[in-house]
Amino acid sequence: MSTLGLLRNSRRVLTGLCGRPNTFFGINLVSVRSIIDLSYSTHFMDFKGSSIPSSMKKLVVTKLSQHFRDAVTLQTVPVPTPGDSDLLIRNRYVGINASDINYSAGRYDPTVKPPFDAGFEGIGEVVGLGLSASSRYTVGDKVAYFGDGAFAEYTVVPVKKALPVPAVKPEYLTLLVSGATAHVALQRLGDLAKGETVLVTAAAGGTGQFAVQFAKMAGCHVVGTCSSDEKAGFLKTIGCDRPINYKSEDLAATLRKEYPRGIDVVYESVGGSTFDSAVNNLAVKGRLIVIGFISGYQTATGLTPVKAGTLPAKLLQKSASVRGFFLPHFTADYRESLRSMMQLFAEGRLVCEVDAGDIDPEGRFVGLESVYRAVDYMYAGKNVGKVVVEVAPHVDSKL
Ligand SMILES: NC(=O)c1ccc[n+]([C@@H]2O[C@H](COP(=O)([O-])OP(=O)(O)OC[C@H]3O[C@@H](n4cnc5c(N)ncnc54)[C@H](OP(=O)(O)O)[C@@H]3O)[C@@H](O)[C@H]2O)c1
Q: Looking at the record's lineage, which domain of life comes first (predicted)?
């Protein structure tokens, strides 16, 4: 393949993985402009004979803000038409991610100005498709995808971003971002060895639950942080050896006391003082993987201060390292990682815990309107497992 061909191909793969991850916190990734060919698509959609309405609801970022409710507006728009190599998917479930507010704050690509569509991942049925897309998919196929514009009743998804799934279950949705992040990060950057001690922060959440299980599968002793006894109980059920409820136990003191040799690998999602405690308790040759820093996302900068001044000395003293991980940089590993996790799930060896808000005082997250509540629920630290919103109940297509 020519250099140009390779370049085009790598761009396609990256957008295929994450929609519009052009930059993150101002760091340039790739610039993508999609060209949609509408010439054949109407042959494969039958608005009259099917249950596809002419208009739909979707969530649009209309103003940049880390406060999701201020940034995002629910709009009624025409149902989009798929291009030649696209699928039109009726979303049944969409996934909530901590970074939905980084996205609405414009931290992924500061050059993209509102309005733009919100939501990273969905699962549902194909209800329309373009001619080229019809060589691989047909109406009624069940698919999941990791791409932009998922917070909508219908989303146009390029075939290259779609993943066939055996059923439209929210459990499959948990794997697209949350599961894949834990799987690839630990495999590529963890260098896990049997008998090592692994600390997972935000361990009972969307991605934390998978990090716990994959570290356990690697034969490690797993410590997990969380904010309630209920979450600690859940962590025990998925193999966490030592859940730490940081609201009732001091994290730094507990690590110092119970793990005097230090922690070999940290899967760190919280930032701020949690990051500092993890650094201070690294073992010799320890590896801390920066997965996120959720404690800062609701601030204007998106960051929580850490004790960066002393970091080089602390790392040197222990020959330790801090490694960053961002899923869209690992396109080559993505599909294989999903295949492997789906196999583990099918064999009953992987728990994909879903939280659809059943304990929320206003009830289960059903309908796009409840995405706002679901984001608040996550940021209140209430979720056990992956937060999902049921967009619409199942509809039998007449196509
Ligand atoms: N690098 C990547 O490619 C990538 C991909 C996916 C996710 N992530 C990161 O992984 C982390 C978790 O994301 P997720 O979508 O899976 O969310 P999640 O873990 O399902 O939910 C967030 C959890 O974070 C914990 N938390 C700790 N301190 C918090 C604070 N100050 N404010 C709010 N929550 C706090 C809460 O649980 P407890 O307090 O009970 O522990 C809360 O339930 C985030 O940092 C996210 O950016 C990174």
A: Eukaryota
Domain 3-168+354-390 has CATH 3.90.79.10: no
Q: Could you read off the pLDDT of 24-40 as tens digits, one per residue?
A: 444 443 333 333 444 44
- The count of other CB atoms within 10 Å of the CB of residue 74 is 14
Assess whether the C-beta atom of 226 lies below 6 angstroms from ligand 1. Answer: yes
Q: How far is CA 176 from CA 44, 99, 226, 255, 334, in A?
A: 27, 14, 23, 32, 9
Q: What residues does each domain of the chain span?
A: 3-168+354-390, 176-328
Question: Quick one: tokens of 277?
Answer: 């405690």
Domain 176-328 part of CATH 3.40.50.720: yes
Distance CA 81, CA 224 (A): 45
The pLDDT tens digits of the residues spanning 164-187 come to 999 999 999 999 999 999 999 999
Pocket test for ligand 1, best of 207, 212, 276 (most atoms within 8 A of CB): 207
Ligand 1 atom, smallest distance to 208 CA: 19
Whole-model pTM: value is 0.90
Pocket perturbation via mutation, ligand 1, pick of 103, 183, 269 by most ligand atoms within 8 A of CB: 269
Cβ of 66 closer than 6 Å to ligand 1, yes or no, is no
Q: Which of 99, 181, 97, 68 is nearest to 387 (CA)?
A: 97
User: How does pLDDT run across 65-90, given as a tens digit for each residue?
Assistant: 999 999 999 999 999 999 999 999 99
The reply to whether ligand 1 has any atom less than 6 angstroms from the CB of 202 is yes
